[in-house]
Structures
1.
Amino acid sequence: MKNSNLLVICCFLLFSFFGCKSGDETETEIETEACLSSEGKVTIMPLGASRVQGFRPVFESYRYALWKEVINGEWSVDFVGTQKDTGAYDSYKDFCFDYDHEGHSGWTSGQINDQIENWLNQSEIPDVVLFSSPGGNDALQGASLESILPNINAIIDKIQAHNPNVTIIIEQMDPAKSSFMDEELTAIFEQIHTLIAQIAITQTTETSIVIPIDMASGFSDDFLADDVHYNSKGAKFIAEKYYDKLIPYL
């Protein structure tokens, strides 16, 4: 593990988490934009950590690029969650960006597991959950696979208990920058990829499908703004993969 790089990333994640404007300020900005609401019938919860939250202009979330794909497809979709993005986003085709999400910078699978029921109770019921980089921050912090796996399963259990008909698209996550991916980190990422495929099978029920999505294939260092976060090219790459999986459920 590259401890110096990890320390920089952890500090940066803490800054991005605490350095945001208040929700009241964000709501005021959204309400004053002269554009139409894009909220629709299919509710989608983007769930995860900093790759979901984003931190413009330093790095991107995939959510804005995905939202534009949805607008282009003329789908009726509403992003949901207890968090509101504080970044500046242009309107698109006369629609305002849908700022809602459930991304929490620096959070581990254990922390998400502890809070997921509260978030679900405080937001609209999601028809679809996009589960980003499960176990990614755990792996960056040196956690064992044995400690990560039960949390991922428990998160899915709680989502399905909240909505037995939910569709969950869960990432086989893309890597960090190649210079950052030492042998230990590469090995645990590969193990998580394999387990996510197995989890998707075992957690799928008669009414709730869990779908793995391979974000690693085709991913490159050119898609990263730093060691782990997306630039605009990376955000578009991830968004397009999500969109292709989402179409049958929209």
2.
Amino acid sequence: MANLTDYNTDVTYRATVLKTDRLTPPDTEEVREIQLEVDDPSFSCQVDQSFGVMVKSNNEFGNEWHHRLYSVADLPSKKKDKTRLTMLVKRCSYVDEFSGELYHGAASNYLCDRHKGDAITITGPHKLPFQIPEDKTADLLLIGMGTGIAPFRAFVKHIYNEVGDWKGKIRLFYGARSGLELLYLNDKDGDLTNYYDEATFKAFHAVSPRPEWSDPIALDAALEGRAEEIREMLEKSNTYVYVAGYERVLDKLDKAFGNILGSEENWNTRKAELSAGNKWAEIIY
């Protein structure tokens, strides 16, 4: 798995904020959709690529550049030779376990505080581990948590709007703390529901049973609820499994897939086969 220090930050581009909208209600975690326009006509980015944001932060050690990667959350477009990108950003903060002091995420808070017309510095494009198969009969099992929906939204739109004639199954499992935080799958901004009419596409939600108590999101239950279909997909040689979201989701996935395939050993064997064939990929943060 690549480290942020592996990505080239020597070449940067100026991007202008065209719009920034909060997607989640005020009493939930703040997630914003931000649209950028890159000034340099030579810059381009595709749905299977990401881009970086450079943020300069003052701290006790002096000025430090923070570099964070973001997946495109919509189909990149060109207007007057300038690339337009859409990104999802969740405002993050954490409490230091030793000092108890509250710290705000440098990049996420910087981006969430930008306004229309502000300039930011970006890098890229950078390669994503997710690739759309050339085989249109391939099955895709997409699992996203929180802002991890971003690359899969772009993928689904690309497959049905630009690739076309997709024969394989696409199953999207998306987890959020509550139904109000299900991005692109709700009454306000539900453009992914446009693809419910596609014969090959289905999406399934997983939420916390008690979000006010911070109970874990029941992603494993959502997967096991479709056990027969997922088992059939995992038994096929041309199935791809892509995961994007929080690190703690991996344990839930291993448990759920182990139950679906009959044992932890069976799942470990199948996962190793998927990884060896470049059919398992993850973006974990």
